[in-house]
Write a structure and sequence with these properties.
Layout (H helix, E strand, L loop, with lengths): L1 E4 H6 L1 H11 L3 E5 L2 E6 L8 H10 L3 H17 L14
Parallel strand pairs: 1-2
Antiparallel strand pairs: 2-3
């Protein structure tokens, strides 16, 4: 984690942002020897399948098997088509 003064960042903003992006390093902006802000790199975007894959890998074997079985059984039942959905806030 780098610490830069607000003045340094203002004078070199483009290169500082390039460094945050390229090095994926957090920068603390300092004013009067006190931290006032953080510049952090944007996290890479993930689609739903990638997120579920990350969650699935954290489960123990029994829980993972139960989740896989539940997903497969819901696919076989073919429940909940888009035409059947309704607005829960509609009167």
């Amino acid at each position: 984690m780098k610490m830069l003064t607000v003045t340094e960042v203002a004078r070199n903003f483009s290169s500082v942002i390039d460094g945050v992006e390229a090095d994926q390093e957090e920068i603390v902006l300092m004013r009067n020897h006190k931290p006032v802000a953080h510049l952090v790199p944007q996290l890479p975007t993930q689609n739903a399948l990638e997120v579920l894959g990350d969650i699935y890998r954290t489960l123990d074997d029994d829980t993972a098997d139960a989740l896989a079985e539940a997903v497969n059984s819901s696919k076989k039942a073919n429940r909940g088509t888009l035409n059947e959905l309704r607005n829960p806030w509609a009167f």
